[in-house]
Design brief:
This protein is mainly alpha-helical. It contains 3 helices and 3 strands. The radius of gyration is 38 Å and the shape is rod-shaped.
Length: 136
């Protein structure tokens, strides 16, 4: 896949202006779409500005790849509310995790207690049976 050569192309942000593509990324240089002047690097390859705006960079440069460069969206910072929600969510996840571990530990301990009590009950039943047989 080839990328378009540097030149003026229709602004991917949808403005009615042309924007300069430096061959790797969109720059902050704009000009009116009805302007017929092109950069010295792109004059030989570029179509008239109105044709570039209508066709887009891939068609105007004759590239068969169909590649249309698009400006990267600017990064946005998290708001205070979003940070608070993230912190609260993290705290809740930690609390639920610790609670689950404690519950599992208690469940295991109660299982051991039950086995010990059941063993004591069986031993008491055996002693009761022996006492009944001895009293006969």
């Amino acid at each position: 896949m080839s990328t378009p050569v540097p030149g003026w192309y229709a602004d991917p942000a949808g403005t009615p202006q042309l924007r300069w593509w430096d061959g790797t990324q969109w720059t902050q240089q704009y000009r009116p779409a009805n302007s017929e002047q092109a950069s010295p690097n792109a004059q030989a390859n570029a179509a008239p500005a109105s044709q570039v705006a209508a066709q887009g960079p891939a068609t105007a440069q004759g590239a068969a790849s169909g590649y249309t460069p698009v400006a990267a969206k600017p990064r946005t910072k998290a708001t205070g509310g979003q940070i608070a929600i993230a912190v609260l969510s993290s705290v809740l996840v930690i609390v639920f995790g610790v609670t689950a571990l404690l519950s599992a530990g208690l469940f295991i301990q109660k299982g051991r207690d039950y086995q010990r009590v059941e063993s004591d009950l069986q031993q008491a039943q055996q002693e009761l049976e022996q006492a009944k047989e001895g009293s006969k």
